[in-house]
Each structure stands twice: as structure tokens, then as C-alpha cells.
């Protein structure tokens, strides 16, 4: 029996909140990626790892907030805990691979294409692995061309977001990049859901897994905590909070902010001696 699928059982609440979470994760993650391109190599892995955690947590949270508004008529939906955690791990690993490629090689050329492709595939893998963790009294089928379109949307939008992050010149660039990253996740998610067909058996309730409210609510605490941590670190730069590299000499305490003018040693010695008396060269009469 063909099941009736409803992805908006709470109206526009879940899509809007999900999109905002994707934008928040993208904003923090891309900001960390941009910051990584301006620091020394010793600080770069830390910024890139934080950006990876922020983006991975943001897209995972977005997916399952959207899934809270997903219902199928005729059968309840349960989720497998291990598969749900695996989708988060896959998102972080694959997105991290793409972020580190762009962070070390730059947001242009082959590095940008490779990093954007891997990041987009990470978003898609997280989505379909999370869908595979659903347990219901029925069978899921996907329209292959629509699935291909959803993966292409994720790769194209992720590449565009990384490109914008690499050329960020101010607040508007950062906002634009995060909106594009949110579009990559949300566009991929809802296009993938449009490819879904459900055949309900109508025989019994699923015995495996846990209900969405009981499982996903507590599981979101960790990713949300990571987003909060990333936000705090972005606001309070660790190079300042943790003491980072030494400041330039002209900015150290007790040193003038303006560079000193180079003077010849002779003039320096003359000034050190104080004013010189001007004597007349006219011979004195005795």
C-alpha cells in the first residue's frame, strides 16, 4: 500500500528552524575556515577542526529537526540509535576532509572543486544514512534521478559556500556564505525527501528503534553544545584569550605604536650630548 508522506506536519516551523540551524552551523564553520587561512600553520588545524565540528553538527541538527516534522500515514517511525550516531560521524569526517583541503590548499582551482565535492558528498551521505536508520512498517524506495539532483545541489552549494568563505572581506560576505551553506543542506534534504516513496505493509508497528521525540531530542544536546562552543570561540578569538603568538614590537606594552625613525649614529650622539654651543669663527683680538 502506498503510504502518504507528510514532511510538514508542523507547518513551516520545522523547515524554518532547520534552515536556521544549518545557517548557524555554516556561519560558525565557514568563519573558522576563513580564520584558519589567516593564521600560522600551528593554529590552523585547531580552527579547521572547530569549523568541521560546527558544520557537521549544524547539518546533522538541521536534518533531524526537519525529520521531526516528517510523518507517514499508517505507520509510526522509529530510529536506530547506532545508525543515527553513524550519520553524525560520517558528516563530520567527510565535511572535515573537504574543509581541511580548502584550508590548506586555498579556495580556488582543484582544491576548491575537490573540497566542495567532498563536503557536498558528506552532506548527502549524512542524509541518506540517517534515512537508512529509520524503522517503520513498510519499505522505502527512491527515485534515482531525483536523488542524483539532490547530491548535485549539495556539491554545488557547498563549493560555492567554500569559495565565498575563502574570499570573505567582511560581514556581508560571511553572511552570504552561511546562507549558501544553509541552502546546500536544506535544498539537498528536501530534494532527497521528494525522491522518497513509501510502501506501507499495514501489518504491525515497528519493533526496532526508538520514537523520534524520545531519541532525537536528547541526542541533539551534544551537537548543540558544540555549536555554542564554536560560537564562543569565534566571538572570543583564542589567539587573544589563550595568549597566541607574540604581538609585533610596536604593539607591545611600553613601546611606541609608531615605528621609530632611523637616524644616523652621529646625529644620535649629538642629540645625546645635548645642545651644542654655536661659537663664532671670527678670530678674537688679543
Automatic annotation (TrEMBL):
InterPro entries cross-referenced by the UniProt entry:
MHYT_dom
Q: Provide this UniProt record's keywords sorted from A to Z.
A: Membrane, Transmembrane, Transmembrane helix
Where does the chain cross the membrane? Answer: 12-34, 46-70, 82-104, 111-130, 142-164, 171-192, 212-236
> Where does this protein have compositionally biased stretches of type Basic residues?
260-272
Region Disordered, residue ranges: 250-286
The UniProt record lists the keyword Transmembrane: yes
Against PANTHER family, the record matches this protein to: DOMAIN SIGNALLING PROTEIN, PUTATIVE (AFU_ORTHOLOGUE AFUA_5G11310)-RELATED
Name under which the protein is recorded: MHYT domain-containing protein
Protein source organism: Streptomyces fimbriatus
Amino acid at each position: 500500500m502506498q503510504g502518504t508522506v507528510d514532511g510538514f506536519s508542523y507547518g513551516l516551523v520545522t523547515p524554518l528552524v532547520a534552515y536556521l540551524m544549518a545557517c548557524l552551523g555554516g556561519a560558525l564553520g565557514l568563519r573558522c575556515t576563513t580564520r584558519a587561512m589567516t593564521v600560522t600553520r600551528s593554529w590552523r588545524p585547531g580552527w579547521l577542526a572547530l569549523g568541521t565540528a560546527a558544520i557537521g553538527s549544524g547539518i546533522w541538527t538541521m536534518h533531524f529537526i526537519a525529520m521531526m516534522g516528517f510523518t507517514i500515514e499508517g505507520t509510526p517511525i522509529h530510529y536506530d540509535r547506532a545508525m543515527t550516531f553513524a550519520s553524525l560521524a560520517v558528516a563530520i569526517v567527510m565535511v572535515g576532509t573537504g574543509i581541511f583541503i580548502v584550508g590548506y590548499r586555498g579556495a580556488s582551482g582543484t582544491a576548491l572543486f575537490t573540497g566542495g565535492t567532498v563536503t557536498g558528498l558528506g552532506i548527502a551521505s549524512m542524509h541518506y544514512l540517517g534515512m537508512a536508520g529509520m524503522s517503520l512498517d513498510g519499505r522505502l524506495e527512491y527515485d534515482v534521478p531525483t536523488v542524483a539532483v539532490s547530491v548535485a545541489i549539495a556539491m554545488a552549494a557547498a563549493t560555492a559556500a567554500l569559495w565565498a568563505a575563502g574570499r570573505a572581506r567582511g560581514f556581508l560576505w560571511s553572511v552570504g556564505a552561511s546562507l549558501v551553506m544553509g541552502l546546500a543542506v536544506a535544498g539537498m534534504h528536501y530534494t532527497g525527501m521528494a525522491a522518497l516513496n513509501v510502501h506501507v505493509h499495514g501489518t504491525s508497528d515497528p519493533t526496532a528503534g526508538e520514537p523520534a521525540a524520545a531519541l532525537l531530542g536528547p541526542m541533539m544536546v551534544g551537537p548543540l553544545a558544540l555549536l555554542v562552543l564554536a560560537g564562543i570561540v569565534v566571538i572570543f578569538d583564542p589567539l587573544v584569550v589563550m595568549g597566541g603568538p607574540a604581538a609585533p614590537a610596536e604593539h607591545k606594552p611600553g613601546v611606541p605604536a609608531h615605528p621609530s625613525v632611523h637616524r644616523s649614529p652621529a646625529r644620535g650622539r649629538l642629540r645625546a650630548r645635548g645642545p651644542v654651543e654655536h661659537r663664532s669663527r671670527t678670530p678674537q683680538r688679543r
